[in-house]
Design brief:
CATH superfamily of chain A: Beta-grasp domain
Structural class of chain A: mainly beta
Helix content of chain B: 55-70%
Helix content of chain A: under 10%
CATH class of chain B: Mainly Alpha
Number of helices of chain A: 1
Oligomer: heterodimer
CATH architecture of chain B: Orthogonal Bundle
Order of helices and strands of chain B: HHHHHHHHHHHHHH
Distance between the termini of chain A: 25 Å
Radius of gyration of chain A: 13 Å
């Protein structure tokens, strides 16, 4: 039996990203893999690309101004340092 | 205790909560309890712009050529934006400055409200350029029932807080220290928390609905000067909503006044309901905008889905459950309009907001250099 899927509903994704030799942000990595991650300013102040970091670690290339909870990251402003598993809605 | 413009008591800055502690005395930023607010001030100042920088001569021709129902959409949207910034240009100062206890937050509130006054001046700039008689449009803001209804809901929390603050601050120190005084203070804190939630709704949901309408015109290469101004306004609003989210989250997570954390826990359902009610109102507003006809790319249903999308995103940002099943953004072009590095300041580029779009590919694929030899 197939479950009916609302085409308008966003899905929760859980993806593992790896450190990249080029300075590519988490948001850019996810976009390269085809995910339409919500974003707005891409400068760390609007908070639209906020997501949960489940495992691994990231480093900020620009200081985020938007609120970030304890396990949250701003995808537009950080790069992967240690294999990072993130969950987000898209 | 009455408000003091220069509190002469000595106290430890780091022991003060954001609001309802000692009133601020020295405007000093060498010791900051929450340095984020100074960072927001710096960013806001770096965003400085003037409405007159944007040329609107083409918009006048565009406006005259719009069909009547699209003129209604454009003007109603502009009236709504004017209302929202009339409120935001003064209310953070009037409501929050008498209560604030940290210099960096006090200055953020002033910087924030100042930037809203630039927005207000820009609406006059738009109307002067687009209309022969802008006065009628401004007059309608206090007469039009659809706008007045909105004005009531965006201001009631502010007004309740301001009134209660005024009552509280004329009381004696003895009364304020009594059981009744403490009860009144807790009630005042609750009013502040709900006001901040309602402000966040205004900045983070209501404004974005209006931005979608402004950008929908420009997506069809109409009213592009207007969209250029709205893009500058949207960039400021993203910062303001972040500031308010910081205040709400610092309070709710117990990083500030412990009594505020209790109140935040008690008010979770009410705050979520404020967001849901506002979303429903914005959907009604969408129906009013499109009552005589939709426009290409935007109608009541699409705008309603956008309202639900943005509401759930904003709820999540302050740790509340989504209310509408987190629908996808039905207006993907909004992202490009809201992107910071798409905002241009060079005068020759300000006329046409599409100047940069698609003009530059900044990614370089190393494969492109394969045949290159020195």
């Amino acid at each position: 039996m197939t479950r009916e899927v609302n085409p308008n509903a966003s899905q929760t994704h859980r993806i593992t990203l790896f450190p990249s030799p080029e300075p590519v942000t988490v948001l850019q990595q996810l976009e390269k893999r085809g995910f339409k991650v919500p974003y707005q300013c891409r400068e760390g102040y609007c908070g639209a690309c906020r997501m949960v970091l489940m495992k691994g670690s990231v480093d900020y290339v620009q200081e985020p101004l938007a609120w970030c909870g304890d396990s949250e990251i701003l995808a537009c402003s950080c790069i992967v340092v240690v294999d990072a598993t993130v969950t987000f809605k898209a | 205790m009455a408000y003091q413009t220069f509190n002469q008591r000595e106290f430890d800055t780091f022991s003060q909560p954001m609001f309802f502690g000692e009133t601020v005395n020295v405007a000093r930023y060498d010791q900051q309890k929450f340095p984020i607010f100074e960072k927001l001030i710096e960013k806001q100042l770096s965003f400085f712009w003037r409405p007159e920088e944007v040329d609107l001569t083409r918009d006048r021709k565009d406006f005259i050529a719009l069909p009547a129902h699209e003129q209604h959409i454009f003007l109603s949207n502009l009236k709504y934006q004017t209302l929202l910034d009339s409120v935001q240009g003064r209310s953070p100062n009037v409501a929050l400055l008498p209560l604030v206890s940290l210099p960096e937050l006090e200055t953020w509130i002033e910087t924030w409200a100042f930037s809203e006054t630039i927005h207000s001046r820009s609406y006059t700039h738009i109307m002067r350029n687009v209309l022969t008689e802008p006065g009628k449009v401004f007059d309608d803001i206090v007469h039009n029932p659809a706008i007045v209804e909105r004005a009531t809901t965006v201001t009631r929390y502010y007004d309740a807080l301001i009134e209660a603050t005024q009552r509280f601050q004329v009381q004696t120190d003895e009364w304020q220290a009594s059981a009744d005084g403490k009860k009144a203070l807790r009630d005042l804190k609750r009013k502040l928390y709900l006001t901040l939630a309602s402000v966040n709704v205004l900045e983070a949901i209501r404004f974005y609905v209006s931005f979608a309408c402004s950008f929908a015109f420009a997506e069809r290469s109409r009213m592009e000067g207007n969209a250029k101004i709205i893009r500058l306004i949207a960039r400021d609003e993203a910062l303001h909503l972040t500031g308010t989210q910081h205040m709400l989250n610092l309070m709710a997570r117990g990083h500030d006044d412990p009594e505020m954390a209790e109140i935040a826990a008690e008010e979770r359902d009410n705050v979520r309901q404020i967001f849901i009610d506002a979303a429903e109102q914005e959907k009604e507003w969408a129906a009013y905008l499109f009552k005589d006809g939709s426009m290409i790319g935007l109608n009541t249903d699409i705008l309603a889905q956008y309202v639900q999308h943005i509401t759930d995103q904003r709820l999540a940002a302050i740790d509340l459950e989504p209310a509408f099943g987190s629908p996808k953004n039905p207006l993907p072009w909004m992202d490009a309009w809201l992107q910071s590095d798409q905002v241009q300041v060079a005068p020759q580029e300000t006329e046409i907001s599409t100047y940069l779009v698609g003009a530059l590919q900044s990614d370089v694929d190393t494969g492109a250099l394969e045949d290159f030899e020195l």
